[in-house]
Amino acid sequence: MKRLIFIFYTSCFLAGAQNNPEFDKGNALYNDGDYKAAIQAYEVILEKGLHSAELYYNLANCFYKLNKVGPTIYFYEKALMLDPKDTAILNNLAFAEKMRIDKIELIPEMGLVRLIKNIVDLFKLDTWAFICIAFMLAFIGFFIAYYLNQSAKKKRLFFVLGCLSALLVTACFGFVHQKNKRMESQTFGILFSQKVRVQSDPNLKSDTAFELHEGTKVQLLETYQGNWTKIKLQDGKTGWIPNNDVKAL
After folding, report:
1. Which pLDDT tens digit goes with each residue over 116-134?
2. With the C-alpha atoms ordered 246, 189, 95, 49, is the resulting torsion angle positive or negative?
3. CATH code, domain with 50
4. 96 near 4, Cβ under 8 Å?
5. DSSP string of 67-133?
6. Are residues 131 and 178 in the same domain?
7. For residue range 194-236, what is the model confidence (pLDDT) as tens digits?
8. Residue 7 covered by a domain
């Protein structure tokens, strides 16, 4: 069986918090086996408005040691949002997800849709924006070179390169739009209650559509009267749950 890798991060993190004594205190408490106290130390940092992939990762490790499925997956997901390519986070999240009771099957995606989604997920939004600007500058450079060069052979070369750059700029604009659209329209959360009754309507007297359990990731669609949240699963099922059963990522 694959073992969970407990690599504690001690590197610098955002907003100048690299010198925060609570981070080192939390690490020391974790190493001493006092996981609850370590969590309290890390949460002091969060209360100051500081955050990083390393901090969330360490918090997840603490909750894993305490067998808290919901918080474990929640904080691994938070870490992954800040550092989506970190292999330790990816591996530990995959391992932690095996602790969940619910096994949700993904809706199969069409080949082209899946391909575009995979390409969009290659980079973060700011990276895609940077790539788009780079191709745009390349297009401008090839355009200028085309008009300034007197050689017919070189003009053809710069024309082809310019057209290629224009296509890449257009594609990157599309990827930026898709990435931004998904970030704005899709909000996810993790269930924190051990058992959650998903209602067909936003009231306790409605029929129970199905049940879920702690640690399951759901998409948050809308809220009702500030007490209910409509959720959607990866298999397409929808329903309503009380707000206090889920924590938004």
Report:
1. 878 887 887 888 889 999 9
2. negative
3. 1.25.40.10
4. yes
5. T-HHHHHHHHHHHHHH-TT-HHHHHHHHHHHTT-S--PPPPP--HHHHHHHHHHTTS-HHHHHHHHH
6. yes
7. 999 999 999 888 999 999 999 999 999 999 988 999 999 988 8
8. no
